[in-house]
């Protein structure tokens, strides 16, 4: 069942790297390659990259509402709909506006997925493996990022999008058949018998701990009945959790990940490396996919805090390095022929570091740090903030390069990650192995260091 849920994550992150193999085709004068029959303009380039984030800003709002009103399962099934329409539309699009429409719809589903999927997985998991379970999302997000790098350059735009549309269609068929509603939602709407059945399916029918877990869920939800955004601002522990999640999710966007994946082939072309941009992008995608397997194993061993700190520092260092390469290439008379390997090595180091923590842990923490009564509100706000920052970065990435140089853009991203490293050392708590009630007590009465046991 978990793998079927993660299929939806794959369908979503395809939208992030979709532009990397598509841009060269849409810039082509060859009508057999470019369905538009003309090259796109730089302005259209910017909108194709950034419109997906516009949809993602709005996406959390309707889907978290559905999750709270009608259940997590129904919400997740609904998220697949805009993906299917999006990829089918772009498969047969002949005008730029249909591509715009498809990108907005893909973003709508992606924003909803980033808000609801971590919530769903956290609520069906046990306390002892909740981190590992939520971090499996990172593997399938990475798989979604990898698919366009692996197949996009070698397929027509039509067949590429048809294949992408098949992913959410397969998900709907499987999840509709075997998907289970979370016990937290069922208890919250007073469907206790169904909640017990859900737990028995999730924990195995012979698990003697199910009655005790059901009782703990009831106690936890009773303590946090009714919730509004004002509660987050008013209550110290929720305010603290909100600030932590907001800072980390903004740092994720300011790492430049989306801009790098959107313009990856262009970045490699600008580096002048002897390795072709297509092969460099494929190697980057493989690194993205392979690195995603480490975090689920490490998160419940090393904990969220140490991984977040290490991830932020590693991304800062790698971005500093690639910025130095572009500075040498563009602003000095020194040759970069002997260090042509630095861009791809630096970006692989970047993606390994990002996947260890900053890429997924902010969403894991968002699903853990808030009680059930404000979880949907917090998830919507945090996810929307992520995509607002991502929109700004991707929409104006070309302008940043024009004003600051490519080196300056990468150094800006590096400085943002370094600031996130310092913030994480001071403020990020450890939630490894703790129940939702324990986490609330830790935020209310203890410091991050006390929680990091």
Percentage of residues assigned to helices: over 70%
Give me the CATH superfamily. MFS general substrate transporter like domains
The rounded Rg comes to: 22 Å
Assess the beta-strand content as a share of residues.
under 5%
Largest sheet: none
Question: Overall 3D geometry?
Answer: globular
Counting DSSP H or I runs of 4 or more residues, the number of helices is 24
End-to-end gap: 32 Å
Give unreliable regions as ranges.
447-453
Structural class: mainly alpha
CATH architecture: Up-down Bundle
CATH topology call:
Growth Hormone, Chain: A
* Number of E-type strands: 0
Order of helices and strands: HHHHHHHHHHHHHHHHHHHHHHHH
- How many structurally independent domains? 1
Reading off the top of the CATH hierarchy, the class is best stated as Mainly Alpha
> Would you tell me the overall average pLDDT?
83
Family: Belongs to the major facilitator superfamily. Sugar transporter (TC 2.A.1.1) family. Trehalose transporter subfamily.
Membrane topology: Multi-pass membrane protein
Subcellular location: Cell membrane
InterPro entries: MFS_dom, MFS_sugar_transport-like, MFS_trans_sf, MFS_Trehalose_Transporter, Sugar/inositol_transpt, Sugar_transporter_CS
Task: Give an overview in words.
By secondary structure, the chain is an all-alpha fold. It has one domain (2-179, 224-451): MFS general substrate transporter like domains (Growth Hormone, Chain: A, Up-down Bundle), CATH 1.20.1250.20. Helix content is 79%, strand content 0%. It has 24 helices and no strands. The protein has helices at 2-17, 19-26, 42-58, 60-69, 72-91, 96-124, 130-151, 157-178, 183-188, 192-203, 210-223, 229-234, 236-254, 257-262, 264-271, 277-291, 294-302, 304-331, 342-356, 361-369, 372-395, 397-427, 436-445, 448-451. Helix 16 runs parallel beside helix 19 (342-356) and helix 18 runs antiparallel to helix 22 (397-427). The longest helix is centred in the last third of the chain and has 31 residues, at 397-427. The radius of gyration is 22 Å and the shape is globular. The two termini are 32 Å apart.
């Amino acid at each position: 069942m978990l793998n079927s849920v993660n299929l939806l994550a794959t369908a979503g992150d395809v939208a992030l790297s979709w532009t990397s193999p598509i841009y060269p085709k849409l810039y082509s004068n060859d009508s057999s390659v470019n369905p538009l029959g003309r090259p796109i303009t730089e302005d259209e380039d910017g909108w194709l990259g950034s419109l997906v984030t516009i949809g993602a800003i709005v996406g959390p709002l309707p889907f978290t509402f559905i999750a709270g009103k009608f259940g997590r399962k129904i919400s997740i099934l609904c998220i697949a709909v805009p993906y299917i329409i999006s990829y089918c539309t772009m498969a047969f699009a002949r005008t730029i506006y249909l591509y715009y429409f498809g990108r907005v719809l893909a973003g709508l589903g992606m924003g909803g997925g980033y808000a609801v999927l971590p919530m769903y997985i956290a609520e069906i998991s046990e306390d002892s493996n909740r981190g590992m379970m939520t971090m499996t999302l990172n593997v399938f997000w990475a798989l979604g990022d990898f698919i366009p790098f692996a197949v996009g350059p070698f397929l027509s735009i039509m067949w590429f999008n048809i294949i992408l549309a098949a992913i959410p269609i397969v998900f709907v068929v499987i999840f509709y058949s075997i998907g289970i509603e979370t016990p937290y939602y069922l208890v919250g709407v007073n469907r206790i018998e169904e909640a017990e059945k859900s737990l028995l399916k999730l924990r195995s029918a012979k698990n003697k701990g199910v009655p005790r877990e059901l009782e703990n869920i009831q106690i936890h939800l009773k303590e946090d009945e009714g919730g509004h955004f004002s509660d987050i601002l008013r209550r110290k522990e929720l305010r603290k959790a909100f600030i932590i999640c907001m800072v980390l999710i903004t740092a994720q966007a300011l790492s430049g990940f989306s801009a790098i994946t959107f313009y990856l082939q262009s970045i490699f072309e600008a580096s002048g490396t002897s390795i072709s941009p297509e092969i460099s992008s494929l190697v980057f995608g493989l690194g993205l996919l392979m690195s995603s397997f480490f975090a689920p194993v490490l998160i419940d061993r090393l904990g969220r805090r140490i991984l977040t700190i290490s991830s932020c520092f590693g991304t800062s260092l790698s971005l500093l390095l690639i910025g130095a390469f572009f500075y040498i290439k563009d602003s000095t008379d020194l040759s970069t022929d002997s260090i042509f390997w630095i861009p791809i090595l630096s970006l692989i180091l970047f993606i390994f570091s990002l996947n260890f923590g900053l890429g997924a842990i902010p969403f894991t923490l968002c699903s853990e740090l808030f009680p059930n009564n404000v979880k949907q509100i917090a998830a919507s706000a945090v996810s929307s903030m992520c995509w607002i920052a991502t929109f700004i970065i991707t929409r104006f990435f070309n302008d940043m390069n024009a004003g600051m140089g490519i080196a300056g853009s990468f150094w800006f991203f590096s400085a943002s990650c370094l600031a996130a490293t310092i913030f994480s050392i001071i403020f990020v708590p450890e939630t490894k192995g703790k129940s939702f009630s324990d986490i609330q007590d830790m935020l209310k009465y203890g410091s991050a260091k006390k929680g990091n046991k």
